Amino acid sequence: MTDFEIQRDVPLAPLTTFELGGPARFFVRAGGTETLVAALRWAREEGHGAAILGGGSNLIVPDEGYSGLVIHMALGDIDFEDSGRVEVGAGVPWEVVVDGAVTRDWAGLECLTGIPGSTGATPIQNVGAYGQEVAEVIERVLVVDRESLVLGELAPGTCEFGYRDSMFKREPERYVVVGVHFALRPGGAGTVRYGELEKQVRPSASLGEIRNAVLDLRRKKSMVIDPDDPNHRSAGSFFLNPVVTRTEADHVAALAVAEGLVPSIAAVPSYPTPTGEVKLAAGWLIEKSGIAKGTRRGAVGISSNHALALVHHGGGTTAELLAFADEVRARVADRFGVQLKREPRLLV
Ligand code: EPU
């Protein structure tokens, strides 16, 4: 007997922003940690895998679906304390948190607006955009240990945050994130340090102005989900921006100049990292390897507004999407010798 309802053969495509893939053999909606723990225990006892589903905005579901239990996180509590602390359940839509913070004039999240998905997913890949990352304002991550099924709290130091990376991403079988506590800055200054954003707003802009400017930029790149936008079925960036050695970056730049792709080395987008390496722009590499925005392969293709987003136009399959992703990856590797890594998670 279980104290929660297990559904069978639940279509997952409508729960993902790609709108692709098959059903979950078993499916449960977890509105609290008790249900989550009971569901994890049930899957273990029955010998099934258990996968966690948040907002479905960074997920690729195979056409054959998932053969185990999908647990849909619906923990929905959110509490703004006067000190600038915000305690948020994993299932709360991320924009609700950003909106509450900006409305209260609490700094720290204003650049992270327009990002689809749920709050519980944000520490996993250390969500970042326009010069901010969630890791900068995370105070605690609440987790359920998948082995002991015990609830615990982790300090940011143990989460090993990096660029689109964390211990949760590297060890996905260890914890389920059930909540996040953020420490924001009431009345604090907003973050204006991303080149594109600096062109739009003054350094002293209000949090609301910064947020609106970010939303405008994201909309122009089809990075805000809008059902009327033909590029809307996507997972945002499909590849990580590759972090390479200085020598590799110099090679890419020299090649681009030699082949007449750019007028000078300075025209190649690259960003130094704190570790002395160089982050290249995957969208740029894709375009310069000859895959234009708007390229289509049947029902899938590249967004017409941003080369880093793969899109599904409707009526396609995950197999088509993954085959096209392989084609893009191979083109960039052939042209520049750089290996792109997929950013969204594949549900297997
Ligand atoms: N570029 C191109 N062609 C394109 C897109 C970009 O040449 O089609 C060049 C631009 O000219 C620019 C550089 O690439 O020089 C960087 O482009 P952009 O500022 O658009 O950012 P990005 O590196 O492509 C990253 C994040 C986005 C985030 C933006 C803004 C990753 C993988 N992606 O994209 O995050 O919104 O910066 O901060 O780090 C996401 O992860 O889903 C996502 C949308």
Word description of this protein:
The protein has 348 residues and is α+β, with helices and mostly antiparallel strands. The chain folds into three domains: 67 residues, Uridine Diphospho-n-acetylenolpyruvylglucosamine Reductase, domain 2 (2-Layer Sandwich); 143 residues, Uridine Diphospho-n-acetylenolpyruvylglucosamine Reductase, domain 3; 113 residues, Uridine Diphospho-n-acetylenolpyruvylglucosamine Reductase, domain 1 (Alpha-Beta Complex). 26% of the residues lie in helices and 24% in strands. The protein has nine helices and 21 strands. The strands form seven sheets. The protein has a five-stranded antiparallel β-sheet. A four-stranded mixed β-sheet has the order 1-2-5-3, covered by helices on one side. It is globular and about 65 Å long. The model has no long low-confidence stretch (mean pLDDT 97). It binds uridine-diphosphate-2(N-acetylglucosaminyl) butyric acid. The site of uridine-diphosphate-2(N-acetylglucosaminyl) butyric acid has 21 residues, from helix 8.
Order of helices and strands: EEHEEEEEHEEEEEHHEEHHEHEEHEEEHE
CATH topology of the largest domain: Uridine Diphospho-n-acetylenolpyruvylglucosamine Reductase, domain 3
**Count of DSSP strands:** 21
Q: Quote the beta fraction.
A: 15-25%
CATH class of the largest domain: Alpha Beta
CATH architecture of the largest domain: 2-Layer Sandwich
**What is the overall silhouette?**
globular
Strand order of the largest sheet: 6-7-13-11-12
Radius of gyration (Å): 21 Å
For the largest beta-sheet, the strand count, sense and barrel status come to: 5 strands, antiparallel
Helicity range of the residues?
A: 25-40%
